[in-house]
Design a protein that fits this description.
The complex is a heterodimer of chains A (114) and B (111).
Chain A (H helix, E strand, L loop, with lengths): L3 E3 L3 E4 L5 E7 L5 E8 L3 E8 L6 E2 L6 E7 L2 E6 L8 E8 L9 E2 L3 E5 L1
Parallel strand pairs in A: 2-11
Antiparallel strand pairs in A: 1-3, 3-8, 4-5, 4-9, 5-6, 7-8, 9-10, 9-11
Chain B lengths: L3 E4 L2 E5 L4 E7 L6 E7 L5 E8 L4 E4 L2 E6 L4 E6 L8 E8 L5 E3 L3 E6 L1
Parallel strand pairs in B: 2-11
Antiparallel strand pairs in B: 1-3, 3-8, 4-5, 4-9, 6-7, 7-8, 9-10, 9-11
The chains are: A mainly beta (114), B mainly beta (111).
Chain lengths: 114, 111
């Protein structure tokens, strides 16, 4: 079974802090994704990556950056956390070679910025 | 811009009832349609994926159908149980790796 893990289930940070959210998948998937989920807004794509060192902006990349130095690991970085980045963050992965592949999600990280 | 709509937003049924969740999308250039389940405070669990060449997929008490011409997908749950209570999300994948999600249907199955 595919396993996608996220470094923390709950995280509390202060405004202005630099925040790292880590995601690891164990199925050698090419594609990895970061979403945030907010009540009434649903899931929104922040960034995704097709391969190591590759990244593409999603729908809401402002205030975020990403890093993919190894195939299995995709990091989301909040350079200077703000209260409007309080949210549930979900990582996902899928195999490459075309779009018709199932996405597998991690358990999520609930981030609170105070 | 692709939009995915799920109706109803919330549904409450007695245990044992068969039910249908609806999902509609605006873009007919679909690659696949995926249904997920999300429990409160948790990540998404994939239930069924229907590729564009397929009309339906089944897993246990779940059956998902896809009608590309009308831009609709349904998730049928047979003999519902309290453990089925969760939010169900459908998502559309078109000509890229990106998914477009509906806002979900929150299902409550009452014992």
């Amino acid at each position: 079974d595919v396993k996608v893990t996220q470094s923390s289930r709950y995280l509390v940070k202060r405004t202005g802090e630099k925040v790292f959210l880590e995601c690891v998948q164990d199925m050698d998937h090419e594609n990895m994704f970061w979403y945030r989920q907010d009540p009434g807004l649903g899931l929104r794509l922040i960034y995704f990556s097709y391969d190591v060192k590759m990244k593409e902006k999603g729908d809401i990349p402002e205030g975020y950056s990403v890093s993919r130095e190894k195939k299995e690991r995709f990091s989301l970085i909040l350079e200077s956390a703000s209260t409007n980045q309080t949210s549930m963050y979900l990582c996902a992965s899928s195999s490459g070679g075309g779009p018709s592949y199932e996405q597998y999600f991690g358990p999520g990280t609930r981030l609170t910025v105070t | 811009k692709q939009e995915v709509t799920q109706i109803p937003a919330a549904l409450s049924v007695p245990e044992g009832e068969n039910l249908v969740l609806n999902c509609s999308f605006t873009d007919s250039a679909i690659y696949n349609l995926q249904w997920f389940r999300q429990d409160p405070g948790k990540g998404l669990t994939s239930l069924l994926l229907i590729q564009s060449s397929q009309r339906e997929q089944t897993s246990g008490r779940l059956n998902a159908s896809l009608d590309k011409s009308s831009g609709r997908s349904t998730l049928y749950i047979a003999a519902s149980q309290p453990g089925d209570s969760a939010t169900y999300l459908c998502c559309f994948q078109g000509g890229s790796e990106k998914l477009v999600f509906g806002k979900g249907t929150k299902l409550t199955v009452n014992p």
